[in-house]
């Protein structure tokens, strides 16, 4: 085991997306971005319990936050599939590789659940 914790090795790599024929680099999310998007994602899961105004607010919050993270999309009109794909991409970028591999294998670790 190494005596040095290599923080550089833990930094996720940027990803690329294509929009209107342009390739855009998406930087790894910051912790605050992940927390905010997770909060928005939780509200999306409960969309059935929201009224129309609340749904509009959640959708606007999601699109606004994605566009703040990816300024090249600031003027873009994004559809639902595009927004949800970007949300998934960004959240996966913030997940440690080991967790992503476990998830692929159908193993989910949820520290909030009690045995």
Entry summary:
This protein has 115 residues and is mainly alpha-helical. The protein is built from five helices and two strands, in the order αββαααα. β1 (15-19) and β2 form a beta hairpin.
List keywords for this structure.
single chain, 115 residues, mainly alpha, two-stranded antiparallel ribbon, 5 helices, 2 strands, 9% strand, globular
Note the topology.
Elements: H1 7-10, E1 15-19, E2 22-26, H2 31-45, H3 52-69, H4 80-93, H5 97-104
Antiparallel strand pairs: 1-2
Helix pairs in contact: 2-3
What does this structure look like?
The structure is a single chain. By secondary structure, the protein is mostly helical. The protein is built from five helices and two strands; from the N terminus they run αββαααα. It has helices at residues 7-10, 31-45, 52-69, 80-93, 97-104, and strands spanning 15-19, 22-26. The chain has a two-stranded antiparallel ribbon. The longest helix is centred in the middle third of the chain and has 18 residues, at 52-69. The model has no long low-confidence stretch (mean pLDDT 85).
